[in-house]
Every structure is written in C-alpha cells, then in structure tokens.
Amino acid sequence: MEPQIAMPEQSPTASYPAPPRVHWIILLGALIVLDAIATALDPKISLLILSGLFFGVWSIYFCLWIRKLNRRTDTVLLACAAFACFLLVSGVGPYTSQVVHLLMDLVRITEGVLWLLLIFGIRNELLQHYNEREPVGLRLGRIMTLFFSFYYFQYHLYPIAQFKKRQAQKTISNPGRTPLA
Questions:
Q1: Distance (Å, rounded) from C-alpha 89 to C-alpha 84?
Q2: Which of 5, 54, 81, 119 would you call most buried, defined as having the most Cβ atoms within 10 angstroms of its Cβ?
Q3: Taking 60 as the threshold, does the pLDDT of residue 104 lie above it?
Q4: Where are the alpha helices (DSSP H) in 70-97?
Q5: Is 90 exceeded by the pLDDT of residue 143?
Q6: What sign for the dihedral angle of Cα 162, 9, 181, 168?
Q7: Residue 5 in this model has a pLDDT that exceeds 60
Q8: Largest distance between two CA atoms of the chain
Q9: CB atoms within 10 A of CB 85
Q10: CA distance 181 to 55
Q11: How many other CB atoms are found less than 10 A from the CB of residue 119?
C-alpha cells in the first residue's frame, strides 16, 4: 500500500533536490545480497557488522541529502558520530580486560543513543521540510520510525522522488496532482 501524500495546488519548487530515488525494497535487497556475498566469502562475518556498515554509509549519504534541504541540520554529525562508534566497537577484537569491556559497552550505549537521535532528527527534518517548505502532507509515525527507520523513510520518499522526476520530465499534465497519481 502506497503512502497517501497530497500535493499542494502549486507544484514543489525545483530549488529543492528530489529525495534519493531508491525504493525501500532495493535497500532491503541490497542488504540481503551483501550478506549472501559476505557469508559465501567468510561465514564468520556477522550480519550485524554488515548491516551496521551498510546503514552507516546509507545514513551519511541520506543526511548529506538532507543537508541540501536544510544547511543548519546536525544530522550529518549525528550519522558520522554513530558510524564512528560502530566502527570503534566493531574494530576491537576480543576483550582482554574488564576496562576495555566496560569502555566498549559505554561506546555501544552511546552508539544506540546517537542512532535514536539520528533517526528521530531525520524524521523531524523530513516532517518540517515536506509539511512547511514543500507542503505535501507527509506523515511519519514514531513507532514505524523507531523499528524501520530508513526503510520507512524511503517508503514515503520514493513516491515524492518519482513525482519530482516526472515533473522534471514534464510528463505530468496536471501539476496539481498528487505524487501517487
């Protein structure tokens, strides 16, 4: 089921870049393929490490796009900090001492807090942009954001990206149509 987004009478301005034109299923498929390749090469590689790398890179890319919408956003810094915490924890081998174990636990907690701040910061940026600057009536639930974050964002942004693509190609006869029509 596609999200329901109503476009205003005036079409969105071309001054804002379109969202990443990646369907959420492509994100999921890329993660599955990456896991299958890594497992075939080295079965010891953890899916958690691969998904962390994948979403760390995707979150930075996504936040760089958000920075084009709002230059004052701090989501890029949050994404980089969360990714750095992930890399730090992933790069440390077996714990040799209780102090290292404790420090890595603190870094994991910090990473979790940064990740929560990041996804809800992105949610706020998207809601502000697509309800104020380019008012399309975007709605993003907190629970879905918490559990599905980037899949959920792409689920809602893909129709907007497709609409803007059709608009740029001038294949829309009625500019007041919704992105889903």
A1: 9
A2: 119
A3: yes
A4: 75-91
A5: yes
A6: negative
A7: no
A8: 67
A9: 23
A10: 31
A11: 22
CA distance 108 to 113: 9
123 token code pair: 């949610």
User: Tokens representing 153?
Assistant: 């964002």
**Beta carbons of 145 and 119 less than 8 angstroms apart:** yes
Query: What pLDDT, in 10s, does the model give residues 26-78?
Result: 999 998 888 888 788 877 776 678 888 899 999 999 999 999 999 999 999 99
Among left, alpha and beta (phi > 0; psi -120 to 50; other), residue 82 is alpha
Q: Where do the structural domains in the chain lie, given as residue ranges?
A: 24-168
What average pLDDT does this structure show over 157-176? 81
**Phi and psi (nearest 5°) for 144?**
-65, -40
The set of residues, in sequence order, having a beta carbon less than 8 Å from that of 165 and lying 6+ positions away, is 18, 21
Q: What is the dihedral of CA 62, 25, 16, 116, to 10 degrees?
A: -40
Residue 146 structure tokens: 């918490």
CB 75 within 8 A of CB 67: yes
Q: What percentage of the chain exceeds 90 in pLDDT?
A: 60
How many residues are there in the chain? 181
Q: What is the model's pLDDT at position 43?
A: 75
Q: Give the amino acid at 4.
A: Q
Distances (CA, A) of 71 to 56, 130, 181: 21, 16, 31
Q: Which two tokens stand for residue 95?
A: 């714990």
